[in-house]
Amino acid sequence: ASLLVRTPHGAVFALDPFGYIDRFVIEAGFYESEVLDALLTHLRPGAVLWDIGANFGLHAVSAARLVPAATVVAFEPNPAEHARLLQHRAWNAPHLIASSLALSNAAGVLPLHLGPAGNSGMTTLGAWAAPTAQGTVLVSVAAGDDLIARGAVPAPTVIKLDVEGHEADVLTGLRQSLAHPRCECVVFEDGTDDDTPAKQTLRATGFNVSPLGRHEATSHPLQNFVARKSAPLRP
Fold first, then answer.
1. Are 75 and 103 a contacting pair, CB within 8 Å?
2. What is the pLDDT of residues 104-121, one digit of tens each?
3. Nearest one of 178, 169, 232, 231 to 204, comparing CA atoms
């Protein structure tokens, strides 16, 4: 069973009242709205947002609806959540580009460990999650820079990254794109240590990293961060 919920940004989602993220949206109106706010600062006509680990599309669909002249690409390899993403796209933002690929540092096929019941947001390529996963599925994996080189998708100017511990590998596969001046902002989830591999890669490609304060009561051991170039490109 699901509830049809319209968020404060006008997008409609079918939500499970027993799901972790879904319940936050039902009760608070959104989940991690600080992430969307940080993304919107850099979204304008002609911008390209990659939502890597889009889940059911809360941030990607909202961004595509709010800034229809931007291009939004949503990557979600979990089959169940990808199906929800497609439904939410059809209802709210048909122009959004959806992909079932998982991103990493190289092309291949890897097991995706599905998150526990009620929290698909914990789905990950990380082997550490295998003991608590609700099974695994094999998914196609690609490096972001390779997809751009093939002309499959436009290069990102803004990135949202939440892949449950696989962030450093995703960023390694995007080093060329990150180093390009047009890539302005990365909003990502990471451990609280100041010198994680993900933060090292971002700083090495010209970004300054700072934490994001939470807008909803979504506190957990990981933290959201925003990485911005010291001199962002302006139109």
1. yes
2. 999 999 999 888 777 776
3. 178
